[in-house]
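Objective 1b. Sequence-to-structure analysis of Citrate/tricarballylate utilization protein.
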Amino acid sequence: MQSLEALTRDARALANGEIVLSAPEAEVARQMQICNACRYCEGFCAVFPAMTRRLEFGKADIHFLANLCHNCGACLHACQYAPPHEFAVNVPQAMAQVRGQTYADYAWPPALGALYQRQGLTLSLALAAGLALFLVLAVALKGTLWSAPGGDFYGIFPHNLLVGLFAPVFLFVVFALGMGVHRFWRSITPATSGAPLSAPAAAEATDAVLRLKYLDGGHGDGCHNEDDAYTLARRRLHHLTFYGFLLCFAATSVATLYHYLLGWAAPYDLPSLPKLLGAAGGVMLALGTAGLWRLNLRRHPLHGDAAQKPMDRGFIALLFLTATSGLALWLVRGTPALALLLCLHLGAVMALFATMPYGKFGHGIFRTAALLRHAVEKRQPNPIGLGAD
């Protein structure tokens, strides 16, 4: 009966042109009202200073705050109103549920937003395996599946074929992510003062992103994982993963310049720049994702949204598979295993790219946008004249 009454109330509100909050959004609004009265956690991260600039929490405000949250867990472990208290304040979990909803709501094209709910570990690995199998069959038809082509990748897959396969997917990923974050930015800008982005605000937000500032728990000792102990492990492992991915991307970019501008065809050997960047990035990415997988398995059940764990683990698994298969290619060059392993690596990379706009990769893009808007908003006069920035 209660759910029927809620549906009736929502239908009436929609008919009157009012904005209806989903259940997770309404829960964040409830908890923020309690937190706004307490303010014990005000110095922990960007969420709580941003919260103090509001007396009410509309949909755009909630989406903004949810993507500011880094799910460090510090506020949960410090909160006197956390479960089993009757107020049941669990900001990390409530924010995580809304965050997952925003990824789906702002996805482009909108019809594919539901993939956020379906993109899990099994789907990610199955997609990688399916694409790898397709490539294996293509190579087998050429009769080069178990041979040693002198370490030349292009002897197995011509360069133009690889470009034709990966370029359209990469361009779609960039466009889809760009459209998604544009819709998010357009939604939260009026709720965050509406002021334009400035150079000082951009510099501050960039610093927060590159240092993962808000994974230090607000005091530099780190956040929480499976218990009340502080740990910097999540911050360090995220750094390894983030910068490892960037180095791998840089290696591919430099190799592209080598090929098209200098006419130097792959493979590249040490001490070439693509090999140095790729080797360092691959090792960092493998170590970072292995560590994050371990932390994810041990994470406190009250942290985050359990429904999003398959998506989280699917993304971690694809990154790990991409890194380790890329490193293994270096070791098997000149052996009959090269073609088979190359198919596995390309399948993992293609699956990673295909799921990027509708998986965990998007959270870094949305969080960056939220940090930019926070840096802009905090430079404006406090609209309610209460509290401190």
